[in-house]
Amino acid sequence: MIRRTLLATVAALAATATGAFADGHEPLKVGFVYVGPIGDGGWTYQHDQGRLAVEEEFGDRVETIYQENVPEGADAERVITQMALQGADLIFTTSFGYMDPTNAVAAKFPDVKFEHATGFKREHPNVSTYDARFYEGRAVIGHIAGHMTETNKIGYIASFPIPEVIQGINSAYLHASKVNPDVEMVVTWVYTWFDPAKEADAARAMIDQGVDVIMQHTDSTAPQAAAAEANANGGRVFTFGQASDMSEFAPNPRIASIIDDWAPYYIERVGAVLNGTWEQQAHWGGMPEGEVVIGEITSEVPAEVKAEAEQMIADITSGAYHPFTGPINKADGTPWLAEGEVAEDGALAGLDFYVEGIDAEIPN
Amino acid sequence: MIGSIDPALLVAALMVASTPILLAALGELVVERAGVLNLGVEGMMIMGAVTGFMAAVASDNSWVGFLAAMGAGAAMATLFGILTQHLLSNQVATGLALTLFGLGLSALLGQGWVGIKAPGLARLDLGPLSDLPVLGPMLFRHDPLVYVSLALVAATWWVLNRSRAGLVLRAVGESAEAAHALGYDVRGVRMAAIAFGGAMAGLGGAYLSLVRVPAWTEGMTAGAGWIALAIVVFASWRPGRALIGAYLFGGIAVLQLNLQAAGARIPVELLSASPYLATILVLVVISARAKAGGVRGDAPADLGKPFHAAR
Lengths: 364, 311
Prior knowledge:
The complex is a heterodimer.
Chain A: H1 2-22, E1 28-33, H2 43-58, E2 62-67, H3 74-85, E3 90-93, H4 99-108, E4 113-117, E5 127-132, H5 134-148, E6 153-158, H6 163-179, E7 184-189, H7 196-208, E8 213-216, H8 222-232, E9 238-243, E10 254-260, H9 263-275, E11 282-285, E12 292-295, H10 303-318, E13 328-329, E14 335-337, H11 345-349
Parallel strand pairs in A: 1-2, 1-3, 3-4, 4-5, 5-11, 6-7, 6-8, 8-9, 9-10
Antiparallel strand pairs in A: 10-12, 13-14
Chain B: H1 7-33, H2 41-59, H3 62-86, H4 91-109, H5 135-139, H6 144-162, H7 164-174, H8 176-181, H9 186-212, H10 224-234, H11 239-261, H12 268-292
């Protein structure tokens, strides 16, 4: 009897304690789910920089937690659920493959807010999506690549056949072929976001076949290292930093980079939850919002090409130029965008075809 | 379209791509022939990758890196050995824990080492051999470690099958009780085999971080250790077949990337899955053959069984 009373008292005390905790003194708990390690030097590293920026901005008003190396699929659902059970109030799931798991967990935790990166499903009012217009960056590096290639073969290490990657391939090709009509796009699918050895092998396979400018849509610095090795052995191969600046490989082989800066968005959204103004949205920022940044264009690039690239950055940032401006035909020759027509966001978000000139099939 | 693939470069690339798993598989093969199942290959590899990278950068010498990696792998393996051989913990669970431990510890150790360039390993110049028209770039222009790995295959085969030490090691793996009754130090032999396996896994990891990628990135082994474990079974515990298995797996992995880059009209999904499909296929064929032969495969009889002399 005494024991039962004691237990009840403890339970009551605990309830009061949690109650007291919840009304304003408890820091907002923000969770991040990462597809790779935070030390990948690319995609996940940049998301983690965003997380650190949130901590810096809000100090002890927030507490952040994260989980690295979470495979896309069933494991992700388990990890996200675990985070919600740990009391996270806001969870950022930072890879395309977390789309269905995020929505599934969101259904079970209506009071937790979810932000899914690069996806398009918002099945519940507590799920937002956010993405960056990486294709704006691809336009700039495509332009540089078209000038820099001598073999007229530009390689693209592609991860998964999803709209974000197709946008990148199309945008890079459009702008490379604009300055160099003979350019050929060599796309290699590796079916992974992060596998340094495989990424290096893919880069090497393309270099062996005469590709001299390599773009990557994967997260590690391995392709840069492979290109650096090829150049050390008498090659002439250029690369672009992906997601992160990868400046340790500048000025050669890395001649520029597309940097994802998630800090402004993460700070804005965490602030919105703290203020109680968080609402579901589909956010798609780019160069104007400062989310897509082109890293230093190195001295390997001729001055006039660099100037053109910087002009393009200025035009995209000001809104004067959209990388997908017609006339553009689909790969099968049918028209997509008419003269002067600009691609709509909806069409881009579901992009599933190559533009005219890319001679390859997109895997299903 | 496929004409743009240079077979010489393809073979050269496959030898480089296969070397890490070959080294790790060779080490694990010896461990399993001694009757111990160490599932911590991935953890030992990645510890080798990070330690080798740090040592190589600090000393500006890849060979120092390889030695350090072997030391780190052997140290990890010895930890496994103490737990499983002396404290008789469960081998499967301990091996899995070793993998998790290695992944975590390597990430911690390697934090300040991301984005640094490795000193690099000069390719061997074999004089006239390297200048041969096709065979030169294919076989005679590699870094020295590729040849070291091939020499190790031969040496392992010789020791296992032609030396007294190998006979004792196999006896320990087939019947620890019998070996013990004959007066052999079962635990000592197993500890030595485990340390050798760790050193080889460490060397394979360092080959990844110093030659094949070459850079340190967290989690960079990305499952190579598990492939090495599969290749040991694939090889039915024979060094020569481990070479074939590793080169087959590495070869198909490289070939499919080359086919894609060459624009071959083969579904990419099929190409990407091909290394795994080929491995599964061969495993099925091998086990079917073992069944038809009425034997229980070629696995060492005492594989994974704990041994305690006082029993």
